[in-house]
Structures are given as C-alpha cells and as structure tokens.
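Weekly puzzle thread! Below is a chain. First person to post its structure in token form gets bragging rights.
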Amino acid sequence: MDNLIVQRSDRDTDVSLQVLSLSGRLGRRNISLPIAWARTHGSVVVAFDRYSPTNWHAHLVSTDGELLLAFPFHDHADRILLGPERWRFPIQAEEEAWEGRAEGWWAWVRASGPYAYLAGCDDEIERVKRTRKLELRSPGLVAVDNVEFSWNRVPTIAYKQAWQDAVDTCYAGQPSPVGAWASESSDRVRLLA
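Winning reply:
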C-alpha cells in the first residue's frame, strides 16, 4: 500500500475526530485523525499478562491477537478493575473522550456513533511540532509529523462487553484471557493465547 499523505486543508472536520490537543510556545496544536483511516475490528478482548507473580497488566487486543491499546503503567490491573480507581482504565467508551498519558505513552478512547475509536502512541507526542502532515502508513497506523499513532475502531457494544468480561474474570479470581506476547513483524505486536 502506498503511503497516503493528507494536508490539513484537504480534511473535512466532519469526518475526523480530534484526538489530542498539545500546547506549546506557538499556541495549541490540535491533532485530528480521519475516521476513514481507523482500522475496523469486529471484536476485542481485554487480555492480561503476568508482569510478576502478583502483578497483572491489561491490554486491549483484537480477537485476532493484534494489540490495539496497551496500559504499561497500570500495575495490578486486576485489583484496579475491582476497586474505586477503575476509571484509570477506559472501561466505558463515551462521547466524552478518555485519555491517559505517562512517560511517553498516550492512549485515547471515544465513542462516536456505533463505534469506539482508539488511538495510542508509544512515542514522545511532544515531538509533533506541526499538525499539518498526516500520513496513513498502513491500516490502523497513522503518522502525524512522523510520530506514529495506532488508530482503530470497534463496535461500542463489543468494546463495553470486553471490559465487562475482564471485570468478571477478575471477580472470579483469575484474570483471563492470559497470553504471551510475540512480535510477528516490526510494526505489529500480537498476543498468543
């Protein structure tokens, strides 16, 4: 697939979602991603992986095993999902966006129409100096000024069910599903069940 580059003036704001607003010396930089570029997944699961004997991490994964959102700074995910701080995870996709940020990691979730849109970045998002150059590098992978963002969508019903299933497995005492991570290629990480 040839890379597709779109300049800001070529985008219609009605078909894009603003995912991030950054402040800088020259004012605010708003990043909006075209909804047509979001890779569609029919179903997702919240998969757990054992970080240490008593520490679970959670990841939002397509049912094909593709990592959609990671939550690397959320230790003890099983305990968080059962406690009053469950808001630290985006367990409900709503019209008002959920956003998380820590040490270069960033994630964003928002419901729009029948879909939950998911954006994520493991790079330093502050490296985005201008927001004029958007590039579709592959399905579900967008670059803004050469900073790569994952960009996916899933049916909102499937999204909410995945988080409810995750909470239910934590109540049962065994977070599930549990998988091992394997890199299938340099740009995609997959979960092996």
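Puzzle host: Confirmed. Bonus trivia for everyone else. The chain has two helices and 15 strands.
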